[in-house]
């Protein structure tokens, strides 16, 4: 097989990197994956490719770097027709998918992070309430977007599936570490089933991190953030 | 003229509302504009149309509400072909425009806000440095995107022109209030000329707020934020 002219610079625990990889898998695009050793220092290629933010993921197509995960997913959708469309074709459905993707990044995922990082019990409870409230909104959005089909995007994984689904491993880690079921049959039955379908999809399963391994990584990050020794 | 089925819920000092209005102007779409009286309480129509964020702008097309300014601009571009394209046609150029638009909203404009709101001199100086650093990056981006033409989008105002240009009135207010030239012939000559062209464009000039009026509004907001009486 010819060497691919597509590269992804990433790090395995990053939900944002997963977005780029899933989108490439959906389009059956071969790519070289470079795992950044972030603790040992960012690679020259990363610093050169994303000089503004110096962050992963970066997609490099030929000699062109593309940064920011949702920008990357849209670029992949607009560049390769070798697989189903990722964005819906209807402008209103596209707007709806983009709206929820922005909500997830700006409001919902920061609350997930806060659950793990919160110093006090009140802050932790407030963050859990925000995450749960968001899941109820997303359960309702699933009904409207999927129209009875398997994914937000219909029969196939689409933009909002990718935007939301990439957070499922961290959601499961948060459930495990906090002892609280965030996705449940009682409150979010549609999302609970969607999450299983998403994680077992052929485009997803090989890039979705193992919950146990990610939980270990999460504990290490929290310990570091709190300036404490890692738990024994 | 038939009553328009397009509405914009907005507030005159909001740069984000301006984005929606400029995009509609570019496409020659007639719309009804509703000025929200935010201090007197948000309208029922706003609360119903944007229940998640309860924020302006909202575009209402028929009975469909679309929220978040950059989502709205893309919706307008994808829905009406009655004017030039707003997003570039090339996927890499689209990705570049989306990247800088996200940078402006997430990094650059928050620093502009900080200049006005900062409590201490150190925080204010740091914010000014961030804004200036951002302008140098954007000056460089202008060279790459415009390819010698009048706008980031080429011969016509495009997505990144709208995303950035909507902040020009607040940039001028910040210059006026801080006494510092942020756009200058020495550091950002291309942006300085671009800003004049943007503000005098037919799609922009009627929705760009007057600097004096906006500065008065800005003083009032800062006084309110600091819990002090308005300056005399």
Automatic annotation (TrEMBL), chains A, B:
Entry keyword annotation includes Transferase: yes
GO molecular function, one term: glutathione transferase activity
Annotated ranges, domain GST N-terminal: 4-84
Annotated protein name in UniProt: Glutathione S-transferase
Catalyzed chemical reaction(s): RX + glutathione = an S-substituted glutathione + a halide anion + H(+)
EC assignment: 2.5.1.18
Family annotation (InterPro entries): Glutathione-S-Trfase_C-like, Glutathione-S-Trfase_C_sf, Glutathione_S-Trfase, Glutathione_S-Trfase_N, GST_C_Tau, Omega/Tau-like, Thioredoxin-like_sf
Single Gene Ontology BP annotation: glutathione metabolic process
């Amino acid at each position: 097989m010819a060497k691919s002219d597509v590269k992804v610079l990433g790090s395995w625990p990053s939900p944002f990197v997963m977005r780029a990889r899933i989108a490439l898998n959906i389009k059956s695009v071969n790519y070289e994956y470079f795992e950044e050793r972030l603790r040992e220092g960012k690679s020259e290629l990363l610093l050169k490719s994303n000089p503004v933010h110096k962050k992963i993921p970066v997609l490099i197509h030929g000699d062109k770097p593309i940064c920011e995960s949702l920008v990357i997913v849209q670029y992949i959708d607009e560049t390769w027709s070798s697989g189903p469309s990722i964005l819906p074709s209807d402008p209103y459905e596209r707007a709806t998918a983009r709206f929820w993707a922005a909500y997830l990044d700006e409001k919902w995922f920061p609350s997930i992070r806060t659950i793990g990082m919160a110093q006090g019990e009140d802050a932790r409870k407030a963050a859990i309430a925000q995450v749960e409230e968001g899941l109820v909104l997303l359960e309702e959005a699933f009904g409207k977007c999927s129209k009875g089909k398997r994914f937000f995007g219909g029969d196939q994984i689409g933009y909002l599936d990718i935007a939301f689904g990439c957070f499922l491993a961290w959601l499961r880690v948060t459930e495990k570490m906090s002892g609280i079921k965030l996705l449940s049959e009682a409150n979010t039955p549609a999302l609970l089933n969607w999450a299983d379908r998403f994680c077992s999809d052929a485009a997803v399963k090989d890039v979705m991190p193992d919950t146990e391994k990610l939980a270990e990584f999460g504990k290490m990050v929290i310990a570091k953030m709190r300036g404490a020794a890692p738990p024994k």
